[in-house]
Design goal:
743 residues, 61 strands, four-stranded antiparallel beta sheet
Length: 743
């Protein structure tokens, strides 16, 4: 999904998000604008009898209209007109390929001229093969699966921004939390991660059984790549073997799961679950038998927490927007008692609940108050007025009976058994408000924050991040040309440089604009960052200091790419131009050469030739154009371009890669492509959260691939490290960065 292609709504977290449209080209179906709101989520194809109208300046792309042609398309009917394009260009007298044939096959092969023609959204894309393959190439030949596979090695990031109670320490020394559709088990001392990857979409809640081995996690409703709805469900699994033990509630839950808790007093035999339906249904399960014992409508407002009483497995407490309920399970029925606030002002949100050693319930709310509710009653027995400034997001009772509270004010406060404050510590602003608190080893405490940090520390000392990540959609990814490092940037305006061997953040820098793209200079000395506003910056890789800043156009810059010799920088913009700069002094001096003009839609991908003499570009309307960047001129001779050797392969359209397109694709669902430096593998990131691994070259129709889940949102970028040892992928809305070992 290229950021602004107006072609298909994506489903994320159960809501349909229409894409913002900025298409500049009339669609071939003659609807006048690229936006085709009638396209359903499962994508349909329109095969139109387009005549092969040649563009005067390009023999690469056939049958689209340029902007100036679009005036006279009103007389064309919608799909299925038999007339040829009514634009004024001459039509080739040659016999044209019948398009219905492509409808069945979607790819045609012209042996005489040595090209294949593929159709995306009814548009023909002509791709010429290298001369030495013209005689031997066979479209019907079967491509092989790659002999290599990917193994998830490391997941960067944590989901604290909009999830709670999702951080625990296991007796194995592993910290458990989730991001995207992966549960991470991270041993901080040994710097090792294991991953539970049974889920198919965003995980929203997590509970640990009293045995400290069994874990339950709940996910949202999703959509598979063939458009099928994936039901929200709970998975119960073993944290030692990572085997799934039970799957609960498929077909029962609605939208997503928001709260999970195991009972504590009956050996943890029951599990309570709240879903995200309008009624926020509370259900209780005998999870080993996968049997639902009771269910009830909890509240038509948000529910933030649900937990079993520590000594009575028939009592559950739920809290949320303007409610606190005490439920008792009696003969398969859940009976509700409302918490009575009486003289105490009723808070707008009751945000968290825990239990004291004596069985009292303790709640934290949006007014900054801590309320204690006498065991077995629904009345307040004690009030800590103004315990925090602003909302209290987290409460935790430690092993020694101490109560710890944390909130929006970034303070962590300890209270003794008579609710007197013992000590307080403030978390630095950089890390953000406290979202969840968990007890660590000995005196240590773990904190998850709303800025997606996991911190470890003690109540008298300072807190250090053990996990951190981005806090908004992620698009920019670049790998260092000779070190095991990579850089990520996104809409949270943070640029992060990571070390792939130590899995540590080397540095982070805040920017004024949302970042969209990045590229390293071949020397590795500097890195260029493209933003959403047309501004671009160059940073020193070691010191992160600003080297220079320029502006080209006022739209997002989708690609920043230096030529292999380091003497040019090409910038692909959403304004349809490629800006070329001459680069001197090892990436410290820039002078504008000009702009490459010829695309009729926004630039999506760019690649340089090995000798830095040529550039190939793809655009939002599936054009492939070739350029001599030093003079900003387009190359139209097929004989020149068909045998060029490319230094990288990130373009999704081209003879060497067209096999990566799945059947029924609308052209927007492959976001990123990357070839290994040894030219043996090709990887793609798509709109369905999948990373696909192909053999390279990938020039057979519908080439087979290994597919890998983990991301729960569109995969926005994929790149191999300089030595092909690892692959890095970025998730869009899931904000995660995943590192895969090639095995």
């Amino acid at each position: 999904m290229i950021a602004t292609l107006p072609l298909r709504p994506t489903v994320n977290n159960g809501t349909i998000l229409p894409k913002k449209g900025s298409g500049t080209l009339p669609s071939p179906s003659g609807s006048g604008s690229r936006k085709d709101n009638s396209t359903p989520a499962n994508k349909r194809f329109l095969y139109l009898p387009l005549s092969t109208v040649r563009r005067a300046n390009s023999n690469e792309h056939v049958g689209t209209l340029t902007r100036k042609d679009s005036g006279d398309k009103g007389n064309r009917t919608r799909a299925g007109s038999t007339g040829s394009n009514s634009s004024g260009k001459r039509s080739d007298s040659k016999q044209r390929d019948p398009v219905f044939n492509a409808g069945m096959r979607r790819v045609t092969h012209c042996k005489e001229e040595g090209y294949v023609k593929m159709y995306l959204k009814g548009r023909p894309i002509t791709m010429f093969m290298p001369k030495d393959q013209v005689d031997s190439y066979c479209l019907e030949a079967k491509a092989d699966l790659p002999s290599n596979k990917l193994k998830l090695d490391w997941v960067y990031g944590y989901r604290g921004r909009d999830c709670r109670s999702n951080l625990y320490l296991l007796p194995t020394g592993e910290t458990v939390y989730f991001i995207a559709s992966v549960v991470v088990l991270f041993n901080v001392d040994e710097q090792l991660q294991r991953h539970y990857t049974g889920h198919t979409d965003d995980i929203k809640c997590l509970a640990v059984h009293p045995d400290k081995i069994t874990i339950a996690t709940g996910q949202v409703a999703g959509t598979s790549s063939d458009g099928k709805q994936l039901a929200p469900h709970v998975r119960v699994w073993d944290s030692v073997s990572l085997n799934t033990l039970h799957v609960l509630g498929t077909g029962f839950f609605d939208r997503a799961l928001v709260c999970l808790a195991f009972s504590k007093s009956n050996g943890g035999n029951t599990l309570c679950v709240v879903d995200d339906s309008n009624d926020h249904v509370l259900s209780v399960w005998d999870w080993q038998r996968e049997d639902r014992l009771a269910e009830v409508k909890c509240s038509n407002e948000s529910v933030f927490a649900a937990d079993f009483h520590p000594t009575d497995c028939n009592v559950i407490v739920t809290c949320g927007k303007s409610h606190l309920y005490f439920w008792s399970l009696e003969k398969g029925m859940l009976i509700k008692k409302q918490g009575l606030f009486e003289k105490q002002e009723k808070p707008k949100f009751v945000l968290c609940v825990t239990f004291a050693e004596n069985g009292d319930a303790i709640t934290g709310d949006s007014s900054g108050n801590i309320l204690v509710w006498g065991k077995g009653t629904n009345r307040i027995s004690h009030v800590i007025q103004g315990a925090h400034e602003g909302s209290i997001f987290a409460l935790s009772t430690l092993r020694n009976g101490t109560l710890v509270s944390g909130g929006k004010d970034r303070r962590l406060v300890c209270w003794d058994s008579s609710y007197q404050q013992i000590q307080t510590v403030e978390v630095p602003e950089l890390f953000g408000p406290i979202r969840t608190i968990a007890e660590g080893r000995g005196e240590t405490v773990l904190i998850g924050t709303t800025k997606n940090f996991v911190l470890q520390g003690s109540l008298d000392g300072e807190f250090m991040p053990i996990t951190q990540g981005h806090t908004d959609e992620l698009w920019g990814l670049a790998v260092h040309p000779w070190k095991p490092q990579f850089l990520t940037c996104g809409y949270d305006r943070q640029v992060c440089l990571w070390d792939s061997s130590s899995h540590q953040l080397i540095w982070t820098k805040s920017m004024e604009d949302s970042a969209q793209s990045a590229g390293f200079h071949p020397s590795g000395a500097v890195v260029a960052i493209g933003t959403q506003t047309g501004r671009w910056l160059v940073l020193d890789t070691d010191s992160k200091d600003l080297v220079t800043v320029h502006t080209d156009g006022n739209e997002q810059l989708s690609v920043m790419s230096y030529g292999p010799d380091g003497n040019f920088l090409a910038i692909g913009s959403h304004d349809n131009y490629i800006y070329i700069y001459a680069v001197a002094e090892n990436g410290r001096k820039y002078s504008r050469v000009g702009k490459c003009s010829g695309h009729s839609s926004f630039i999506t991908h760019l690649d340089w030739s090995v000798d830095s003499q040529y550039l190939v570009s793809n655009s939002g309307d599936y054009e492939i154009l070739y350029w001599i960047p030093s003079v900003c001129k387009q190359v139209v001779s097929v004989e020149t371009t068909r045998d060029i050797e490319w230094a990288t392969y990130t373009c999704a359209l081209g003879f060497q890669v067209f096999g990566l397109w799945p059947d029924g694709s609308d052209g927007t669902d492959i976001n990123a492509v990357c070839r290994t430096n040894d030219k043996s593998l090709l990887v793609t990131g798509d709109d369905f959260g999948k990373v696909h691994l192909f053999s390279y070259p990938c020039s057979q129709f519908r080439a087979p691939s290994h597919a890998y889940g983990g991301h729960s949102s569109h995969v926005t970028n994929v790149t191999f490290l300089h030595d092909d040892s690892y692959l890095v992928s970025t998730g869009g809305k899931d904000m995660s960065v995943m590192q895969w070992r090639i095995v």
